[in-house]
Design a protein that fits this description.
Blueprint lengths: L4 E5 L3 H13 L3 E5 L2 H10 L4 E5 L7 H11 L4 E7 L3 H9 L4 E5 L3 H31 L10 H13 L6 E4 L6 H10 L8 E5 L8 H6 E2 L11 E2 L1 H4 L4 E5 L6 H13 L1 E2 L8 E2 L3 E6 L3 H6 L5 H7 L2 E4 L10 H16 L5 E2 L1 H9 L5 H15 L4 E2 L6 H4 L19 H19 L4 H7 L4 H11 L11
Parallel strand pairs: 1-2, 1-3, 3-4, 4-5, 6-13, 6-14, 7-10, 10-13, 15-16
Antiparallel strand pairs: 8-9, 11-12
Helix pairs in contact: 2-3, 13-15, 17-18, 17-19, 18-19
Length: 465
């Protein structure tokens, strides 16, 4: 770890030497300047973490050094040294952004303590800024990988609703990235500096769910030995993400509905309500209309939650995104696992694009992690993939197909069927090949290959896009 660098500025050599010796004993890298002009030149030349400067110096004084330091490096910690008679100037220095001031005469221990505290505060501030940038980068909606039309619609919805307080309902199969979308909404909203609280409702025992959501007061039930805040209070000012919303029992759904309507909650065992300010995002992998019909989800709660619906497509309906996702995960796991993975062999990519992915993006992520760990070389071959992927997927409904008594020419029959579907897809999309490929759940590259194979001529004037 690099040493913190401190610049000592004073026109008296004895003072510079004394402070230098003291700070070097503390483990700092110390630079010195014999006056304000030299100090400003040093600040422009070398990155500096802290500056200790005398206020009264000829030509360029300490206030000018302070101003220059803040212009060159706004985060630098500046400590000024002043005589007792010039404390008013020291106060002015504080207004200009100085961290602290030291009055003469001073103790060297005092200087060491102030410098140590100033550098610690700067370190924490820098760390906080770094973590915030990491969070913002990690949860930007651009990190929802894809270029398909369905995913671009999701991007557009996130942009439009992020700053809205309205509830949102995210639906989609398991593994499609529902929590990732919820986090993207939060971290692109005005609430980004407040908590994002995520809870899987299916993982909370039914008897504890009310206490988990709303909190409880001491003595509310056996074992409640102290007050406890609930998830609504934990997410105050931020976002509460309720995954698998249909797992909430019907009686508790009534209380959740009231919390949404009144923006008030009541802890278990309490007699008064508490105001709450939290943006609610719910998610489910079920068909919510069916859940309402079956009595699993209250109809009134459904409409309260479904103000802004977001439907995430399964991976098999956005196959053109698979190469992008593969590249993303190769980069991620290559860095995390310390193994370079430059790409995927063409035959392996065909398998990945053909597979139906019942576990969606989460399954793809797991497959690629396994392939990188077990694979040899920097290009993943087909042998790195699980046997379940390498096997052909049975065509849905084929068990109902009858085989003529005298048999058939299978290749010719399949070619006829394939050619017919290709032509229908082109007709339906006005000849726009990318859209036709989407209809047939194929990548554009696969679709073009099939067209060439069957010598098909595009109809209509839609053309390529």
């Amino acid at each position: 770890m690099a040493k913190a660098r401190v610049l000592v500025v004073d026109d008296e050599k004895s003072m510079r030497d004394l402070l230098s010796i003291t700070l070097e004993k503390e483990g700092y890298d110390v630079l010195t300047a014999a006056g304000g002009e030299a100090a400003i030149e040093a600040l422009r030349r070398d990155a500096t973490d802290a500056v200790i400067t005398d206020l009264r110096m000829p030509k360029v004084d300490g206030l000018q050094v302070l101003r220059a330091a803040k212009e060159i490096s706004p985060d630098v910690a500046v400590i000024v040294i002043t005589a007792v008679a010039s404390t008013e100037t020291a106060v002015e220095a504080m207004k200009l952004g100085a961290y602290d001031y030291i009055t003469k005469p001073f103790k060297l221990d005092e200087v060491s303590l102030i410098v140590r505290n100033a550098l610690e505060r700067k370190r924490l501030r820098d760390e906080n800024l770094y973590l915030r940038k990491q969070l913002e980068t990690q949860h930007r909606f651009e990190n929802i990988i894809g270029k398909s039309g369905r995913i671009l619609e999701v991007f557009d919805t996130i942009r439009k609703i992020s700053d809205s307080p309205s509830t949102a309902m995210i639906t989609g199969e398991s593994g499609t990235g529902k929590e990732l979308v919820a986090r993207a909404i939060h971290f692109n909203s005005l609430r980004r500096d407040k908590p994002f609280v995520s809870v899987n409702c299916g993982a909370i025992p039914e008897g504890l769910m009310e206490s988990e959501l709303f909190g409880h007061v001491r003595g509310a039930f056996t074992g409640a030995v102290s007050n406890k805040i609930g998830l609504f209070s934990a997410g105050e000012g931020g976002t509460l993400f309720l995954d698998e919303i249909t797992e909430i029992p019907p009686l508790l759904q009534v209380k959740l509905l009231r919390a949404i309507q009144t923006r008030e909650i009541r802890r278990v065992g309490d007699t008064k309500d508490m105001k709450t300010d939290v943006r609610l995002i719910a998610a489910s992998n079920r068909n919510l209309e069916d859940a309402v019909k079956d009595g699993i989800l209250r109809e009134d709660l459904y409409y309260r939650l479904n103000v802004i619906p977001i439907q995430l497509p399964p991976l098999r309906e956005r196959r053109e995104d698979i190469p992008l996702l593969v590249a993303h995960f190769l980069q991620k796991f290559g860095k995390d696992l310390g193994k370079e993975a430059r790409g995927v062999a063409p035959e392996a990519m065909i398998v990945l694009e053909r597979y139906h992915w019942p576990g969606n993006i989460r399954e793809l992520e797991n497959v690629l992690e396994r392939a990188i760990v077990l694979g040899a070389g920097d290009v993943l071959g087909i042998e790195s993939l699980p046997e379940t992927l390498r096997r052909e997927r049975p065509v849905k409904g084929m068990e109902a197909v009858d085989l003529p008594e005298d048999g058939l020419d299978l290749e010719a029959t399949l070619d006829t069927i394939e050619r017919g579907y290709l032509q229908r897809a082109l007709d339906r999309t006005g000849g726009v090949q990318t859209k036709a490929a989407e209809l047939l759940k194929m990548t554009f590259r696969q679709f073009r290959y099939k067209l060439q194979k069957h010598s098909l001529v595009r109809k209509g004037s839609g053309g390529d896009v």
